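User: For my dataset I need records formatted as: sequence, then structure tokens, nothing else. Please produce one.
Assistant:
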Amino acid sequence: MRVRTALLREMGAPPPYAESRPLEIAEVELDPPGSGELLIRVGAAGLCHSDLSVIDGSRPRVMPMALGHEAAGEVVETGGGVSAFAPGDHVVLAFVPACGDCPPCRAGRAALCEPGAAANAAGTLLGGERRLRHPDLGPLNHHLGVSAFSDHIVVSEASAVKVDPELPFELAALFGCAVLTGVGAAVNAARIEAGQRVVVFGLGGVGLSALLGAVLQEAATIVAVDVMVAKLELARELGATHAVGAGPGALAEILDLTGGGADHAIETVGSAGVLADAYAATRRGGTTTTVGLPDPSQMLTIPAVSLVAEERTLRGSYLGSSVPARDIPRFVDLHREGRLPVERLLTHRLALDEVNEGFDRLASGAAVRQAIVFA
């Protein structure tokens, strides 16, 4: 079938993207689903910094690529061997397809699925196939097994999680990345406990989701850090006890507000410098959890002795250290109970043709989460 997709031919186009137009809205051919695959009508797709980092080249991927990884939609058709899904099911898509059989998957660490990581790096679906074809460029690479900026997509069933069909697509999409990563970092990775002191660096969709996770876990002190005043104000509305403008003097203020340092720091910016500040913002015995994805050339410098002498912990968290099939329904239920106000994260709705302008908004910090909403 013919579909419209946001195609990235090459990385590194200069901003503003409304002028350089790195994403081309192209008509391409989508093959039907193969064994273990689903044809999805995309309802909505979120714009994420992980997409932006491919556009600007700081997170290299194989080109040309149909971009987008945070999405929700409806199953239209199933391939051979699929029994867990049927046409009409509403699904959220996770950006790591979990095979369920490799050592990390068997250990309950689906985010580290080895075949899933290999497929994502190669630009294929979990089974090694590419289902999108351009009339001139030939097969297109898939972004993280999803390629969400398309009106229809084919994905591995291992990328999909069924959700309540009453949840609007533009909210459901956020559970596949922003919520899964941020709330997961607070709940699954940091394992924040009631009464603890927490600081969150970066207040985009993932950072504010981490803040919501800290509120959910009943942290006593939650310090939100960002350069954008509007995001600091939103963080207060969502439960932050303190808001600190990033910059000189911020670390001293954080240490003062947390009585000498936080029990947990969560870094979502994707900067080695910010990660070093997050580590310095914790107390003896504190934990720093990072979900940001800095350019591979960035190196981190911390006092090595502090890891032992002060029993500090520094850990990474990919996909919120989540198991999507377990955590997406759990987080959706918490949203329905009013305990995860995810709707507050969605600041803009746009059409597919406005995707380049959307990435300008994201790059400038003028948006929290934006969703392309398909008719």
